[in-house]
Design a protein that fits this description.
single chain; alpha+beta; 33% strand; zinc
Length: 130
């Protein structure tokens, strides 16, 4: 028997500077990016009144609020990236850890968080619950 569900995706940009520690190449120098963050949630039920999995406006608000902490800053000087490398992989995981608890009140599961530095490269973080 097939199980059906929906995935919702919201995207938001932010700008920050970083330098990758322990990296051999140009990215070890301070430089900036216009990042794109992508949040994907999934759910298998629709609300009775509006027949939505979740409101895009609410999802965008949650993502924006978390990105405000990273926007127009030097990531290497911003916790937790003052201790861990401010790589796209770590930014995606950080956002997951910030956003997942905020979704508990909604009938959705966080599916993935992705960070793109450029349109040609993206790091995606997921956690699979057993």
């Amino acid at each position: 028997m097939a199980r059906s569900f929906w995935q919702l995706t919201v995207r938001e940009g932010f700008s920050s500077a970083h330098a990758l520690r322990n990296y051999q190449g140009k990215c070890e120098n301070m430089h900036g990016h216009n990042y794109l963050a992508e949040l994907v949630v999934e759910g298998d039920t629709l609300t009775e009144d509006t027949e939505l999995v979740a409101d895009f406006t609410v999802l965008k608000k949650i993502l924006r609020e978390e990105l405000q902490k990273l926007d127009h800053c030097v990531l290497n000087e911003t916790p937790p990236f003052d201790k861990i490398n401010p790589s796209s992989e770590n930014i995606a995981r950080y956002l997951w850890k910030c956003i997942e608890p905020r979704l508990k009140e909604f009938p959705v599961r966080l599916y993935s968080v992705s960070i793109s530095e450029k349109s040609a490269q993206t790091a995606t973080y997921r956690e699979i619950k057993d």
